[in-house]
Specification:
single chain, alpha+beta, 28% helix, 367 residues, nine-stranded mixed sheet, 18 strands
Length: 367
């Protein structure tokens, strides 16, 4: 699919310009600048009790092939400014993480450009990731200022018209009550338990299973399969390589089913000590035997390691039916995780409301 262009450098009222600042009392908001990654990543680790390194941050926010965007990073920072007047009043910034401007980091709101398609028509969406408020600033308007500045800068009919992400209960309430978001659905968790019966069943001989990433074959499969997905991320080779390739400390395994010299379906797996995650499926819909061949490998891998199996799946009834026949079933989430969206397009909202939004674990940044 052709590249998607989005140039946000032209002035829009309320938008942030590169190098510019907006001041709200002691809080200022600005766009991400080169060098901010250390503070932004340190804040992320502090808020979510993680130890993510800068190499993984850089993997997550790469230069985007096939998407011409400006500015490169869709990240807004809110900071508390240490002005002379405030210091004279004894109102020094709260202790914490200091950004490259020398100010205290208060909040971050961020997204990734996301090439998407609706019934074959390309559009540019934004996937919300890595957004947070530092604990000392949760009773201030710092996070809200960052959210408002982000949407003034990036969002609109002539810019990014669809923003989505997955949020816990508290953040969902904040976004829906104050910032124009809709909570559309819970993350569509599926699980499978005992699979010994499945392993004793006859193997699938019509399709050959291969391992590894084949960019040309994925592009050919997407060209045939895209029409099956009403509204989805563009799952071409560029997306697969960016989403599942080269992540520090995480190995994804791509498994594909082939027949008559072409890829009929592929799946991406992640093995953790607790479970096998099926992070993504792509299928041309022509023969359920391709899905059985791949799913048999998932079951064998889980049985070998003695772990459970999980996936997310919505928006593909044929695939859901094929997997349900193999023992997969929708399962209540252990904790609420909502798809939250903000959208200016009625056709996109209709597609989501009608269950045509194709969703897997690959559509979130949690796996």
């Amino acid at each position: 699919m052709d590249s998607i262009a989005c140039d946000l450098r032209r002035f829009v009222p309320g938008a942030l310009a590169p190098g510019g600042r907006q001041q709200f009392g002691s809080i200022q908001v600005r766009l991400f600048e080169e060098g901010d990654e250390c503070a932004v990543n340190d804040g992320f680790n502090a808020v979510f009790s993680l130890r993510r390194g800068l190499d993984e941050w850089r993997w997550k926010f790469p230069p985007w092939e096939g998407v011409a965007v400006s500015p490169r990073y869709w990240i807004v920072l809110a900071e508390e400014v240490a002005s002379d007047a405030l210091m004279a009043q004894g109102d020094a910034p709260r202790p914490g993480i200091v950004s490259t401007t020398g100010q205290a980091l208060a909040a971050v709101f961020a997204a990734l450009p996301m090439p998407m398609q609706l019934d074959g028509r390309a559009l540019l969406g934004a996937q919300g990731v890595d957004s947070y408020s530092m604990p000392a600033y949760r009773c201030t308007r710092a996070y809200g200022r960052a959210v408002e500045a982000f949407f003034a800068t990036f969002f609109g009919d002539d810019r990014v018209s669809y923003f989505y992400g997955y949020a816990g209960e508290r953040n969902t309430q904040v976004l829906t009550r104050h910032y124009g978001f809709d909570a559309c659905a819970l993350a569509p968790l599926w699980t499978r338990g005992q699979t010994s019966w499945w392993l004793r069943s006859w193997p699938v001989r019509s399709h050959r299973v291969r391992f590894g990433f084949d960019a040309a074959a994925v592009d050919a499969l997407w060209a045939r399969a895209a029409k099956r997905y009403g509204f989805s991320v563009i799952r071409d080779a560029r997306w697969y390589a960016r989403r599942f390739g080269g992540r520090p400390g995480v190995d994804y395994l791509q498994v594909s089913a082939w027949r008559d010299g072409r890829m009929a379906a592929c799946a991406v797996l992640r093995h953790t000590p607790e479970r096998i995650d099926v992070a993504d499926w792509l299928w041309d819909g022509e023969d359920t035997a391709a899905i059985r061949a791949l799913d048999r490998h998932v079951a064998r891998l889980a049985a070998h390691h003695g772990v459970r199996q999980e996936m997310w799946l919505a928006g593909d009834e044929a695939l859901a039916g094929a997997l349900a026949a193999n023992g997969w079933a929708p399962t209540p989430l252990p904790a609420p995780n909502h798809l939250v969206v903000r959208c200016t397009r009625s056709d996109v909202r209709d597609a989501i409301a009608n269950g045509r939004h194709y969703v897997t674990m690959g559509d979130a940044d949690l796996v």
